[in-house]
Amino acid sequence: MAQYPAWDREGRDWPNREASRFVQAAGLRWHVQVMGQGPVLLLLHGTAAATHSWRALMPLLADHFTVVAPDLPGHGFTQPVTGPRLSLPGMAASVGALLQVMQMKPALVAGHSAGAAILLRMALDQRIAPASIISLNGALQPLGDQHAAFFTRTARLLVGLPFVPSLFAWRAADKAVAERLLTDTGSRIEAAGVDYYARLFRHSGHLAAALGMMANWDLVPLLRDLPRLAPRLVLVVGAKDRAVPPAQAERVRARLPTARIVTLPGLGHLAHEEAPDQAAAIIIAEGAA
Questions:
Q1: What percent of the chain has pLDDT over 90?
Q2: Of 135, 122, 136, 138, residue with least CA distance to 230
Q3: Neighbouring residues of 84: CB distance < 8 A, sequence distance ≥ 6
Q4: pLDDT (tens digit per residue) in 12-33
Q5: Residue 1: what pLDDT?
Q6: How many CB atoms lie within 10 A of CB 148?
Q7: Taking a C-beta distance cutoff of 8 angstroms, is the pair 208, 165 a contact?
Q8: Are 101 and 52 spatial neighbours (Cβ–Cβ below 8 Å)?
Q9: Residue 1: inside a domain, yes or no?
């Protein structure tokens, strides 16, 4: 199995393929999807995902916005980076450079899981100036909370062992394993959605990027800086999320009292994939605010 997914193989029937383009920016070849007309809406997926995460949501939003959704570095069909560039500031800088090349200035942004953290860092670093940031089950608290340093050290150890991503990919080549991993987040998505994840999970390079993000992730500075956030922050929370405990949203709001929490009953970490119509309604309403 090849180390990275190939556009002419894994991407042969990629969701919204007609909206795809490849863009050179920050020394990388990015896979980006652009769809619709109107104010620019930037979507950033979470760790170990790609643009397929927005497969049903993008067309709903394209009636109201010019929707821009890249694969993050090392994920999906975007070229990989290493070391500091996988950190939160590093990812924020790379996505900022992509927007500059594309001459896109988002009026609104939405990010899932780690994608929400990247958007917050971009806003705090003045790389974007949207009216609102919509966090979809945002991973905004240190992994393991008081045990965060241990998890980060462990991730660094794992990513430093070249056989580890290959071992994970070998296990995830079984579609049933991929389905269990997704179900463990508290979400159930359709079979086609599981297949897109499984296509990516069986490539060691894609998983190495996810591990590399974990190894270089430090949310403490982000939380420290959060009180000076200028855009409105909407925390969309799946009540059944088992990846990011819903209670974390209250802890984020304690640091930023102006943040608004919207709870989606019965949905898990992949709420925007389980119920794209509900996610679209929230984003569209925030764009009209």
A1: 71
A2: 122
A3: 90, 216
A4: 999 999 999 999 999 999 999 9
A5: 58
A6: 16
A7: yes
A8: no
A9: no
Range of the domain at 98: 17-288
Structural domains in the chain (count): 1
Kindly state the DSSP code that residue 59 receives in the 8-state scheme: H
End-to-end CA gap in the chain = 48
The conformational region for residue 205 under phi > 0 = left, psi -120 to 50 = alpha, else beta, is alpha
d(C-alpha 262, C-alpha 140), whole Å: 16
Residue written as token pair 């393929």: 17
Query: Which burial class, exposed, middle or buried, applies to 58 when counting CB atoms under 10 A from its CB (0-12, 13-18, 19+)?
Result: buried
| Separation CA 72–CA 48 (nearest Å) | 9
The verdict on residue 257 lying in a domain is yes
Tokens 């971009």 found at: 122
Instruction: State the CATH number of the domain containing residue 257.
Output: 3.40.50.1820
Identity of the amino acid at 232: R
AA identity, residue 101: V
User: Which tokens go with 117?
Assistant: 């953290």
State the amino acid at position 103 in one-letter form. Q
Q: Taking the model in full, what pTM does it have?
A: 0.92
Residue pair 51/25 in contact by the 8 Å Cβ criterion: no
Contact criterion met (CB below 8 Å) for 31 and 5: no
CA–CA distances in Å: residue 212 to residues 84, 153, 216, 281: 9, 11, 6, 34
- DSSP class of residue 112 equals E
